[in-house]
Design a protein that fits this description.
Elements: H1 7-13, H2 17-23, H3 27-55, H4 60-63, E1 69-72, E2 83-88, H5 93-109, E3 115-120, H6 129-140, H7 145-154, H8 156-159, H9 170-183, H10 188-195, H11 198-213, E4 221-224, E5 227-229, H12 236-252
Parallel strand pairs: 2-3
Antiparallel strand pairs: 1-3, 2-4, 4-5
Helix pairs in contact: 5-12, 6-7, 6-9, 6-10, 6-11
Region (Disordered): 1-20
Domain Thioredoxin: 40-252
Protein name: Thioredoxin domain-containing protein
Length: 253
């Protein structure tokens, strides 16, 4: 049976606060404190190491897999110096705005000097994003991916928007894409078959999976030489200048 100590014995057993203060912390307290400090240093080092890993460039295999589409390929002295990767959604209003004010200009200005790669990242909120990506990839099987990429953006107002909101009519959009295929001189029957094929969907799925691995959550998202790049500026001209500054610096390096 546990006994309750008498008041006198309890008081007598209490440490004298004056003498305790003079003696300082016990050896056990010092050892425990040392262990805590060492543990904190180890954890901090691990977190710093992981953060440094995450902040570093992304592997090229994830950003630019075999068969990825390029709008421009660096050549000569500039070959390999700059790789710009864009994850896009063809029905995304922000993407078409970037196309009109920024990326189409970059494509022209840096043609042959940078490698400009385009990846699919259709968002669920845009019901025609996957069919449009399929249209681009189906055209790519006939050697006209870049032409369809441009056509989809150049005619965006006709298939992606109703004027008041985002278009949701997949049947109408698919017919429109077949019209673009015909204008580009493609075999429309083959284009129609390819658009519905597992092969084309697998390309879109691969791009989307890579984007998810890279924590892409919005479109457009850009990676410049393996690192996510967020341009600064409140106008298209300012954003374009932000891209130019980074690209020019990399080319000069």
């Amino acid at each position: 049976m546990t006994r309750t100590p008498s008041r006198a014995s309890a008081v007598a057993s209490r440490p004298n606060p004056v003498t305790a203060a003079r003696r300082g912390p016990s050896l056990n307290v010092i050892l425990i404190g040392a262990v805590v400090v060492v543990a904190a240093l180890i954890i901090g080092a691990v977190l710093w190491f992981n953060r440094s890993d995450e902040a570093g460039p992304v592997s090229n295999e994830t950003l630019v897999p075999v068969g990825a589409h390029t709008l421009s390929e660096g050549q000569g002295a500039d070959a390999g110096k700059v790789t710009l990767v864009e994850f896009l959604d063809y029905q995304c209003p922000a993407c078409v705005n970037f196309y009109e004010g920024v990326t189409s200009q970059l494509e022209q200005e840096y043609d042959g000097r940078i490698t400009f790669v385009v990846r699919n990242y259709p968002l669920q909120m845009h019901p025609l994003a996957v069919p449009a990506a399929r249209a681009a990839e189906a055209a790519g099987l006939q050697g006209k991916w870049a032409e369809m990429y441009h056509a989809l953006y150049d005619t965006w107002q006709q298939w992606a928007s109703t004027g008041q909101s985002i278009n949701t009519d997949q049947a109408v959009a698919t017919t429109f894409f077949e019209g673009l295929a015909q204008d580009l001189g493609l075999d429309v029957a083959q284009f129609r078959t390819d658009m519905a094929s597992d092969q084309v969907q697998a390309i879109v799925d691969r791009d989307q999976a890579d984007g998810t691995t890279l924590d892409v959550s919005a479109t457009p998202t850009f990676f410049l030489n393996g690192e996510e790049f967020q341009a600064s500026g409140s106008t298209a001209a300012e954003v374009l200048d932000s891209f130019r500054a980074e690209i020019d610096e990399a080319l000069a390096g």
